[in-house]
Amino acid sequence: xxxxxxxxxxxxxxxxxxxxxxxxxxxxxxxxxxxxxxxxxxxxxxxxxxxxxxxxxxxxxxxxxxxxxxxxxxxxxxxxxxxxxxxxxxxxxxxxxxxxxxxxxxxxxxxxxxxxxxxxxxxxxxxxxxxxxxxxxxxxxxxxxxxxxxxxxxxxxxxxxxxxxxxxxxxxxxxxxxxxxxxxxxxxxxxxxxxxxxxxxxxxxxxxxxxxxxxxxxxxx
Length: 221
What we know:
Elements: H1 2-14, E1 18-20, E2 26-27, E3 33-34, E4 36-38, H2 47-63, E5 70-73, H3 78-89, E6 93-96, E7 109-110, E8 123-130, H4 134-145, E9 152-158, H5 162-171, E10 174-180, H6 181-190, H7 196-207
């Protein structure tokens, strides 16, 4: 898995799916200053990287001995990668909506002919990015409320926040990222992507992500 993880990290840096700016941090929607910005949707443009990610999920499931009846994707970024994996595994695919439809069949879960077909089925959730884990678990809980069983969530990348660890633990769900921040930093160091001082800034952020940006307060965007 390490080889695939590093391939994904190199690809992410190459196509700018992961952008790193330790000296000029991004402002996230939450207001926090962070040295990293991730957009895994960019992987969808490249067939070879779509296959690489799907291969990674396949290998992860084999390595972790994960079995399922169906695949689900988180709305919206987990849907395409979940569909690709479901196709490879020849499994049904579904996705939970963030909000229930207020018209038609008023579906909360799409893709299933009859919600009763989810009862007792083991479903693996596919996510693109795990930060705090909140949105991933919201999707999991929607599937559980419909009678499905979700024990595992696979993602392309995670920042490794303790908040995510706690969120998944509270929900009784294991999560398995293909690429971690440690892998990304290792590749950045191997490829001489940044100098030593910049890499140390990334490591400092990893140790304290939600206070790291305080040094940039008052600086112009």
